[in-house]
Design brief:
The protein has 198 residues and is an alpha/beta fold. The protein has helices at 41-54, 72-76, 101-120, 131-136, 142-151, 167-172, and strands at 2-7, 10-14, 31-35, 59-64, 83-88, 125-129, 157-161, 175-178. Helix 3 (101-120) runs parallel beside helix 5 (142-151). The protein is globular.
């Protein structure tokens, strides 16, 4: 038996004969979607990756539509041996209504790389950062991601981030989180801050 303080002078007794849900090995292989207009989608996926890496899992992140080499996560994850990030994008913003040819090309290169990672089956968690936006903006079809989901190894955890997650992704996912913007410094004219937004 274990005695734990629960606050306000109350104690909770846990029996050592009861199973600890944190010790149950359900295994990897689920699909996550982080979407919505609020801040935190990429940050959440990186946090999930760091947690997985801490348990010895191999994590691979592909960032679509991003080519900024000064993103903090690029430096932080260098300190984690089994967490790798590859970017497929330019430092510039993509024009939603008329993406440049190079933007489409880079997105498709990222998608092909994702297919290679899935086919190799050597990572435990694959994060496709901003893939929802790439689909929404017509850089490639959602059907290609559905095929990638179908082709992924059974034990590979898959994370899809970005606004505008297609209904098809949401229906297939095991975990769906929608970030809702209530307040953001941008509303006060404060631009992205190093170490916070990038």
């Amino acid at each position: 038996m274990v005695l734990c303080k629960a606050g306000a002078g109350k104690n909770i007794i846990y029996s050592s004969t009861l199973s600890n849900p944190m010790e149950e090995d359900v295994g990897l292989g689920m699909i996550h979607v982080y979407t919505g207009d609020g801040k935190g989608k990429t940050t959440s996926s990186i946090g999930l990756g760091v947690r997985a890496a801490g348990h010895g899992f191999k994590v691979y992140m592909i960032q679509f539509m991003k080519g900024q080499i000064n993103y903090g996560e690029l430096e932080s994850t260098k300190l984690i041996p089994n967490f790798e990030i590859r970017q497929f994008g330019r430092p510039d913003f993509v024009d939603k209504n008329k993406p440049a040819e190079i933007d489409v090309q880079l997105a498709k290169e990222g998608l092909e790389h994702a297919k290679e990672i899935v086919a190799a089956g050597e990572v435990d968690m694959l994060i496709l950062d901003e893939v929802n936006v790439a689909v929404e903006w017509g850089l490639f079809s959602y059907r290609e991601i559905l095929k990638l989901i179908k082709d992924k190894p059974e034990k590979m955890e898959l994370v899809l981030t970005g606004r505008h997650a297609p209904r098809e992704f949401i229906e297939l996912a095991d975990t769906v989180t929608e970030m809702k913007e209530i307040k953001h410094p941008f509303m006060k004219g404060i631009m992205a801050r190093k170490g916070i937004e990038y």
